[in-house]
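Supplementary material to the annual report.
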Amino acid sequence: MQETVEQFVFDFHKETAEIVGESKDEIKLKLGEFAGPLDLLLYLIKQEQANIFDIPIAKITDEYLRYIRLMKSLDIAMAADFLVMAATLIEIKSRMLLPRDPMAAGEEEEFEDPRKELVDQLLEYEKFKSAAQMLYERSTVEQAVFKRGQIESDENNAEINASVFDLLTVFQKIVLRHKEQVTMEIEREEISLADMIKALKKRIFDEIELNLLTFFEEMHTRRELVTAFIAVLEIVRTEHVKLVQKTTFGDIFLKKVNAPAAEPAGS
Amino acid sequence: MTEPETEQPENEVVAETEAIEQEPAERQVRSAAEVMAIAEAIIFVSDEPITSKALAEILDEHKDTIQAAVEELQKEYEERGGGLQIREIAGGWQIATRTEYHEEVRRFLKTRPSAKLSLAALETLAVIAYKQPVTVPEILEIRGVQSASAIKTLLEKRLIVTKGHKETVGRPMQYGTSKDFLIQFGLKDLSDLPSIEDFEDLAGTAL
Amino acid sequence: MTEPETEQPENEVVAETEAIEQEPAERQVRSAAEVMAIAEAIIFVSDEPITSKALAEILDEHKDTIQAAVEELQKEYEERGGGLQIREIAGGWQIATRTEYHEEVRRFLKTRPSAKLSLAALETLAVIAYKQPVTVPEILEIRGVQSASAIKTLLEKRLIVTKGHKETVGRPMQYGTSKDFLIQFGLKDLSDLPSIEDFEDLAGTAL
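Predicted assembly:
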């Protein structure tokens, strides 16, 4: 029973990282590959060439803890789930050390292996890990296939194919924007539309592309914001400038183009 | 004003949206070759994979006629061995380049293979694909790790969508895969995914 | 503490549009059929008509070889009599639909569902969805911009409906979302709309 107690008062800081022969970066790289505690555990089992149905729990637990400590010593921020798994392993290990109750372990009642739940979880996880690999391969093939180029001015329309998630995201943005507007309503010299267009033009030509959100955020009053908005509409309408969205639902940019600009999005 | 000549044919297609109410009734009799040709033209202009059903409606033909025509067209593309192929994706048809020439096409488009998902995101996507509709706690159960940021990434990439709340304690949000998922992974539909049991044998042995 | 390991590889994903520097030198020997196929693939993916010269550079072939290949390809398209043609436009090559089928193509382009919304319309829809019933002045208050045309679009797309007059000064019209809205966004009912809390755990980031 002595060991059991020892396991539960396990102290990460007392232990020293023991993995040698690898540079800090390499380890970091290696650790970065683990998608979660189950992933790390599978890796360790494979390393030990152990049978998943008969995991040498003491050894694997030690190995696992060593990695955890290493991550800590390297200052790698770690998901709490890694620590949860560490606790689980320690608990299983301690249960394995407990002598079987001769009264309870009758022939008819099978001895419940403390590792069983973990093994089931690992096997289930492994399936999805394989599925992830399959998806990865599929996407690689898919990336070797290209669709036809634009034959319409869709891109210039800056239209968005929306989901509920977008709806909420957009709403949040508006609310935030609104809040800022209210708090920022302080007295300030007003800028005219002509000046705003001039300033905007300069920005676009200097910076090639301009994040609209950033630009709008620079406005101090609601009136300025409205002026800025009108300036954007005006510049898209009259200049060789278009609105682009690089990632679906990412920020919107103003960009200089050589081709004639299309009409602004027909809201 | 670069290349104004290109504009004109494009507008021909895009604009001019006066109603084409003429002859909705006069059912045209088309040869099989004509059906194939029109299907090809429409698949080409469509931004998204187009279903046989949609094609059938536009052409006012029977869905089976269209299905057969497109399959024939697909075969023709295959036999021609050109730079293009006709694929069945997300329940619809699509013209795309052949994988063999990806290197040259990429060089032209100046793109690298992109959209590599992190291992965590891929795993999360796999769980969602096979277990949908599925909640965050259920994903945690399988992956053994919080998947919040992976889910956010997948939502932003439109690979997954919300599927309403689950009617249990706390009404957690459920997630499922999107049409974009099918398109990006080149799947006809969800049944085109290999069954999860197929990975079972691998699971034990691969270790 | 949530999944720091996912962050790094995911950033990898977004951009990556730098040019590809690999193997510019290794001149490949291609058959005439291959040159034709690659030219076809590149003409297909190109946004604008592409010149033989540009094709020659990408393929590292002689311009005359390319010119001959594309002309051969054009002839092939002609003889096939399919729905597509290869045209020489503005000094470059382009794949386009055949004029014979313009009627059907137009009918398709006109009828295809446009589930797409402009950002303005989407914003307005979001305000209406979360604040309904809501009036035009209230929407203006929240969005900070006039939303009249967006509201018109949403009404036309049947995503919103009028919900009677508000009993205040001027009795302004109130708007709310429609049944079509629920269908298009895959919602059982309005209580199924995700709340801020639903996504709060998602990396706890600024939604």
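Residues 1-32, 152-158, 259-267 of chain A have pLDDT under 50 and may be disordered.
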